[in-house]
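Let's inspect a concrete specimen:
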Amino acid sequence: MTRATGDAAGEVSFGPFCLNVGQRLLAKDGVPVELGARALDLLIALASAPNTLLTKQDLMSAVWPDVIVEEGNLRFHMTGLRKALGDGRDGARYITTIPGRGYSFVAPISGSSAALVPGDGAVKFRHANLPNRLERMVGRESDILDLSERLSRFPVVSIVGGGGVGKTTVAIALANQLAGAFDGAAVLADFGTLSDPSLVSPALASMLGIPVGSDDVRPSLLAYLRDKRILLVFDTCEHLVDTVADLAASIIDAAPHVRILVTSREALRIEGESIYKLDTLACAPVDPEMTAEKILSYPASQMFAERIAASGVPLSLTDDDARIIAAICRKLDGMALALELAARRVEAYGLSQTAALLDQHLALAWVGSRNAPPRQKTLRATLDWSFGLLSDLDRTVLRRLAIFVGDFTLDAAWEVIATPSLDRPALFGAIDSLVAKSLLSANSFGAMMRYRLLDTTRAYALNSQIEDDLADLAASHASYYRRWLEQFGPDWPTLSSGPERLPYFLGINNVRAALEWAFGDSGNVDVGISLAAAAVPVFQAMSLFPECQRWSERALSAMGEHYQESREEMHLQAGLGISRMYLHGGRDALPALTRGLEIAEGRGNAVDQLKVLGPLNMFHLRTGDFKSALQCAYRCSSVAEATEEPSAISLGHFFLGNSLHFGGELGRARLELEAALASDPLPSRAPGSYVGFQGRGLAGGILARNLWLQGFPDQAAVRARQAIKEAAEADHSLTLCIALLGGIAVFLWRGDLESAQEHIDWLISRAGLHSLSPYVSVARGFEAEIAIRRGDPSAGVDSLRRCIERLHASTYEVFTTMLEISLIKGLAALGKVDEGLERVEKAIQSVETKGDFCYGPELLRIKGNLLGSISASDEARHCITGAIAASRKMCARGWELRASCDLAALEADLGKKREAATILRLVLDEFDEGHDTDDLQAAQDMSMHGGDVPIVIEASHERPTRRP
């Protein structure tokens, strides 16, 4: 490396600094920075090769070229340089240390870092032919840094990846960045223009200016390179890979200072080579709530948007526009060339139509830049180039592998695409070859490798497929995934986290494709029915209820008489009922569930019965028939015990505990719910998937409600947060939504409105994502209650009316009583006492009829308050004392505390302060926790004032306020 000094007039800037080499001046915001000569030399050397590892020896040679110095000198001046730059202060970062190796300049630079290379060095090598790097390259910063570090350690670095991924772009950018470290001696050899292997060495020699005067130019070439410090870029080597590999091996043996950077769809596989797999650009995930700003932070979206703007299209993206861009990027797998070609279509078609055309695979023929190599004019040309390099066997296997959508395993490939003439060794050899040639990607999930064709490659291969072969392949593919679901479907309830479920989740894309084929014009209905029956429990376990409903309905409508009362019909009827119940909450789920139970009972299998009894219990709860739900829960518990399956028994405890809770039997409910929680956290294979959740996963949210009612507000909050945390970690949306419903109720009862609002937002987001519209309505109702408490009863009441009407319309009644209580309180705050009394009477009657007795004491208390506000004191006292009695019978100390405060307020109004104080003291003595909650603070305030400060509990955070 030459010393980074001289009289070149180069100038670059970074952060607030400007560095001028010719004047040997560093300025900050225009003010010169005092910097020693050696420190300045260090800065010039580092800034000359940004994002590149410079070893300690490199830097000492640059700054002290003719003197032997110790590393201590380097550290001393490096410390001074960093101090002058303010490196590390206020988040500023200019130089990073690679421990034991050296240093790298990491700050973004404006202006070309080549300007810092001395004039004589810049022209020392007159055969340098690198094209200029792009002004801006998106999403490749970490690749450039990693590659430059590898080139400091390995003589050959090969950038390997599929066609159109951006290998050449990255290689040219890296070579431009490193040219200064090679005194400007960097040469690009584009082998994509060659077809004859014998021309490889002569072509390179010609680019280096070596006369080509004999048949064998290699000796002259190696002799020329022997003492050179030079960077050679071998571009597009896959079609000449054997010849290029032999040449590269000879060069690194003969010329120790030469570095070779290779781009190829296949590695050279020589000693001294470091293989760098260049991935496609990262894409934004599917998220209907992601903003444009967040989407455009992903490299693929960023590149696509920039290419649209570069084509002259005015760009002002809304969130919806950005989501279309994200979908296009995912469809194209983040492939740089494909994104470039698609972005050029936006000017003619617009975003939405461009996305639609992609689904028709028209992108294969879209034309790109005029100056692009012929093999990259279109995606089809790129794939034609790759396809032309394959053997006949490789082509056959690639075409057949196109039947897979997304990821697949080696076993799946063998089961689906093997033929009598394609045995296992031949198939595995072809897959190995396709991976090596970057036409098939391979990724490990634990000990298992999974393979995948990019969508554009798959479309190309399908277009070249023979129709008869495709039909046979589709049948084989569907049959395989039916067996796969039957084998692994029961595993779903045992997988406790998203990462554990990921390999299974990836297989679902193939299940979807197989279902589409089976029920299509050229499909096989019998295969489709058995496939749908096997898929139903997995769709439920993944909270994919719209798909569960769709395929259950499709399969049931296609069934012939020979499927009547079959296991397939039982599964499909249960799946149809469950999905309808969660999506709509309506009674149209009951016929399917009832039919499923009839078949299960006829088959006499306890596990099958539980798979339908559990959803029936949930159905009765959701439709507001709490008494029927309790009877069904007893049956669930009994059947679950008969299975002797731990996870089934856990479900039985949950169903019974849940129903007992709403029925007001809080003591027994707690025992059942705690038993469900005590089950093995990783249950064995069992029926959980047919219900859509595990008993253990849901019990925590209901137990939290139960604990608050029993008078343990702090334990309730802890349990609620734990249940939500576990459900979120399991990444199971239905379980999370139900845990959130229980947790939000606890937060509202405690008066923790901030926590309630935070979790309401979460519930709306997750429930909306999975089309669980009844949960969204409940969440909006909870949100309206917060508005009432925060002093906006008018808006809260209007919102609650709408939410309750929507829930009635969908017959989702499990939370309507709780929301009705909130509405009545809002009406009281607005002074609409008559309407409040009318609604509270109806709610009390409804509880008696439906059986959600857990709300009975609170309704009586509220009725008493409303009566008291119109001077019906005797009736008010009767209702409130009735609420206290009902609370005690139920052991619901949470309700009892509120009613006791109201009774104390009535006594205080009559001048009976001693009686009021006694009432408060007796109820306060029952609480050992929760003293910071709204209800207990209100009771303590009243007790301190002898019971004569009546307040509105839950109405607002303003204290004291006269009770209505």
